[in-house]
Design goal:
Order of helices and strands of chain B: HHEEEHEEEEEEEEEHEEEHEEHEEEHE
CATH architecture of the largest domain in chain B: Beta Barrel
Largest sheet of chain A: none
Structural class of chain A: mainly alpha
Shape of chain A: elongated
Number of domains of chain B: 2
Oligomer: heterodimer
Strand order of the largest sheet of chain B: 1-2-3-6-5-4
Strand content of chain A: under 5%
Order of helices and strands of chain A: HHHHHHHEE
Largest interface: A-B, 20 and 61 residues
Strand content of chain B: 35-45%
Distance between the termini of chain B: 77 Å
Number of strands of chain B: 21
Radius of gyration of chain B: 24 Å
Distance between the termini of chain A: 146 Å
Number of strands of chain A: 2
Largest sheet of chain B: 6 strands, antiparallel, barrel
Shape of chain B: globular
CATH topology of the largest domain in chain B: Thrombin, subunit H
Structural class of chain B: alpha+beta
Number of helices of chain A: 7
C-alpha cells in the first residue's frame, strides 16, 4: 500500500483537501445531532430491554455491600414470612365458604322453575328439588283427590263357549 | 274474466247448498239439550271408598224409590257409598254387584226421578246417543256420539254379552253413566273406555236381566245346562255351533242333548256361530226352562231344559269384597 502512494502523491491529496470545509453551522449542531442519533438508536430496541438496562444501571449505581447489609436482610425475611403466613391463614377459607354456600344455592332452586345442569352442584340441587316435589305430590294425591272411575278393560270376560 | 266469474258463481252455489245443514244441526243440538235437561236430574255422582282409597263415579236412578245403576268398579266393592243428589249427599247401600256383567245395583232411601228404560235392540250403526256423567270433579256433563258397533269380543277376550261400542269421548269419573237415545231412554251403561274417543256400554237389557234376578231371587242367577260348544267345520242350517261335550248329571244330559248336535236356537236367540252361545247363555236364568233347538243328523229337535246355577258359582265365595287387581290395566278375571 505504501508503495502505491508515495509522499508526493500524498502531498497532492492534502493540497486538494486543504480547501474542503464542512457546511455552515456544522460544528454548532454537532452535539445536538449526536444526541438525536443516539436516541434513535436506543429506541430501536424493545421496551423490555430498555427497562432491563435502565434497572440494571440503576442497581449497579448502588454498591452490593449496602444491599447485603444485616438490617436489609432481616427486613426481607420478615416481609416474606408475613406474606407466607397470610397465605396459610387464608387457604382453609374457600371450603368453608363453599359449604355455607350450598344451602344458599338450594333455596333459589326450590323457587325457580328451571335449572341448568352446568355444574355438579346444580345437578345435586336439581335432584333434591325433584324428590321433594314427588313426595308432596304423592301426599296430596292420597289425601285429597279421589280415583275417578272409568275402566280401560272389562272386569271379567268369558273364557270358553260353555253354557 | 269469465272464468273468474264462473268460479265465484260456483263458490256461491256451494255455500248456498251447505247452508241447509245449519237447521238440522240446530235441531240435533236442540234434541241433545232437551235430553240433557230432562235426564240430568236422574244422574248422580257417586263417591265411595274401597281398599285403594276414595273413588268417584256416576250412577242413575231407574225407579222413583231411589234404585240406581252404576258400574261394578264404582259400587261393586266399595264402602261408605254416598250419592250426591240435588246438592246433598245421601248414603247408599248395595243391593247387588255382578262381576260378570260389570254393573252394581244401589239403593238410596229417598224419592227420586227415574230414567225410562229403552231398547238397545233398536239401535243401529250411527244412531246418535248421549251420555251424561260426572267427569273428574266437574258438574254433570253431556257427551254426544253415535253407535259405532256391536261387539262381543275385544281386548283379547269375549264379553259376557254383546256390548255397544260408542264413538263418544268418555272421561274419568263417568264409569256407570247412562247411555241415552234421543228420546231420553236408557239404552246402555257406560263401563269401559276404548282408545281415546270411544267407549263400551253394557246394553240395558243385560242390566235389567240382573235386576229381574235380584227381584226374584235376591241375587244374580246365571243359568247353566252343562255343554261345551266349538265351531263346526261346515255350517248346518246356518249354524256352526256344535256341541263337543255334554257333562254327566247336568240338565243337558238329563234332557238328552248329545255331543255332535248342532245348536240352532236357544230361547229366542238364533245361533249361527259359537259366539252366539255367549249371548244366549248370559240371559239364561237358573231355575227357568228354556227351549233349545238342535240339528241331529237330518232331524231338528227341540228340548225344554231347566237351567241350573253354575256349579262353580255354587262353590265360589261371594264376589262382594273380592280384591280387585291392584293394577287396573292388568288382565281381567275370567268367569265361569
Amino acid at each position: 500500500m505504501m508503495d502505491e502512494f508515495n509522499d508526493s502523491e500524498i502531498a497532492k491529496l492534502l493540497r486538494l483537501k486543504r480547501y474542503e470545509q464542512p457546511p455552515a453551522g456544522y460544528f454548532e449542531n454537532f452535539l445536538h445531532e449526536f444526541h438525536r442519533r443516539q436516541r434513535d438508536e436506543l429506541l430501536r430496541q424493545p421496551i423490555w430491554r430498555i427497562c432491563f438496562e435502565r434497572t440494571r444501571d440503576f442497581v449497579s449505581s448502588f454498591s452490593l455491600s449496602t444491599l447485603t447489609s444485616y438490617p436489609a436482610a432481616v427486613t426481607a425475611v420478615l416481609v416474606c414470612a408475613a406474606i407466607i403466613s397470610l397465605r396459610i391463614y387464608q387457604t382453609p377459607q374457600p371450603p368453608t365458604v363453599a359449604v355455607k354456600d350450598r344451602p344458599v344455592m338450594v333455596v333459589p332452586a326450590s323457587t325457580e322453575p328451571e335449572w341448568t345442569l352446568a355444574s355438579p352442584v346444580a345437578t345435586r340441587v336439581f335432584n333434591t328439588r325433584s324428590l321433594r316435589n314427588i313426595t308432596e305430590s304423592a301426599q296430596t294425591h292420597r289425601s285429597g283427590t279421589p280415583r275417578y272411575v272409568l275402566d280401560s278393560v272389562p272386569v271379567s270376560y268369558e273364557t270358553t263357549f260353555k253354557f | 274474466m269469465l272464468v273468474a266469474l264462473a268460479s265465484l258463481a260456483a263458490v256461491a252455489s256451494l255455500s248456498a247448498q251447505q247452508a241447509p245443514e245449519s237447521p238440522s244441526t240446530l235441531a240435533l243440538s236442540r234434541e241433545v239439550k232437551d235430553v240433557f235437561a230432562r235426564c240430568s236430574k236422574a244422574v248422580v255422582k257417586i263417591e265411595a271408598t274401597d281398599q285403594h282409597g276414595d273413588l268417584s263415579g256416576t250412577g242413575f236412578f231407574i225407579d222413583p224409590m231411589g234404585t240406581l245403576y252404576t258400574a261394578y268398579s264404582v259400587g261393586g266393592e266399595a264402602e261408605n257409598i254416598n250419592v250426591e243428589f240435588k246438592g246433598k249427599k245421601y248414603p247408599a247401600r248395595q243391593l247387588m254387584a255382578d262381576l260378570r256383567s260389570g254393573v252394581a245395583l244401589l239403593k238410596v232411601d229417598l224419592a227420586s226421578p227415574a230414567l225410562p228404560i229403552g231398547n238397545s235392540d233398536q239401535l243401529e250403526i250411527a244412531t246418535p246417543v248421549v251420555a251424561i256423567g260426572y267427569p273428574l270433579d266437574l258438574a254433570e256433563t253431556p257427551s254426544f256420539g253415535m253407535i259405532a258397533g256391536f261387539d262381543r269380543k275385544c281386548f283379547g277376550g269375549y264379553f259376557p254379552t254383546r256390548h255397544l261400542r260408542v264413538n263418544l269421548p268418555p272421561q274419568r269419573g263417568e264409569g256407570g253413566a247412562p247411555l241415552l237415545n234421543l228420546k231420553g231412554e236408557v239404552v246402555g251403561i257406560l263401563l269401559y273406555t276404548f282408545e281415546n274417543n270411544s267407549c263400551y256400554a253394557l246394553p240395558i237389557e243385560a242390566a235389567e236381566k240382573l235386576r229381574s234376578d235380584y227381584v226374584r231371587f235376591g241375587e244374580a242367577r246365571y243359568g247353566w245346562i252343562g255343554t261345551n260348544v266349538r265351531e263346526a267345520p261346515n255350517p248346518v242350517e246356518g249354524s256352526r255351533a256344535v256341541t263337543t261335550e255334554v257333562m254327566k248329571d247336568t240338565p243337558a244330559a238329563e234332557a238328552g242333548l248329545k255331543a255332535g248336535d248342532i245348536v240352532l236356537q236357544i230361547g229366542r236367540t238364533k245361533v249361527h256361530e259359537p259366539e252366539d252361545i255367549l249371548e244366549a247363555s248370559f240371559f239364561l236364568t237358573a231355575g227357568d226352562a228354556v227351549p233349545i233347538t238342535v240339528m241331529r243328523g237330518n232331524e231338528k229337535i227341540t228340548f225344554q231344559i231347566q237351567a241350573e246355577l253354575h256349579p262353580t258359582r255354587l262353590a265360589a265365595p261371594p264376589t262382594l269384597n273380592r280384591a280387585m287387581p291392584l293394577n287396573l290395566q292388568s288382565s281381567p278375571e275370567g268367569t265361569p
